[in-house]
Amino acid sequence: MTPTLAGRWQTRFFLLSSVGLIITLAFGLLYRNFLTPLALLGYVLLVGFGCDVAYNYLQTLRWDRDWPPLFFALGGLAEALLLWGLVKATFLWQLFGRSSPPGVDPGLTVAQFAAHYSTVWFVTFLIMLGPLKILFVKWRFRGGQWW
Predict the structure, then answer these.
(1) CB-based contacts of 4: which residues, under 8 Å, 6+ apart?
(2) Domain chopping of the chain, boundaries
(3) CA distance linking residue 134 with residue 21, whole number of Å
């Protein structure tokens, strides 16, 4: 399946608001702080929407318009680095009188971020490759669009 931009956005929203939310709540329990993981999940969604525009364009440059799983992994890594950079861009947040983005604990460590982000990314990736295609057959033939 070659996803459309709308299909990418809808699939991202569906997976992050279901599976991603469950995993994020588990990390909230683990860290005894629900606000930071939930804020990060929201930022992952917003940054991902922007990245999807770039991914959709890059996909058109490939002769078969295909997006192999390795590209998903590279895209996930690029998104993680971009998001971590935005979270830790203190010069940017100081312009708004803050030390970190709204909802994110300034003491967030790279290990906490990496554990949360990579778990959400890996589980949603596995679900997208397998169960999603089995349980929602029409999703595959609509370019990833749900509605």
Answers:
(1) 56, 143, 144, 145
(2) 5-61+73-138
(3) 22
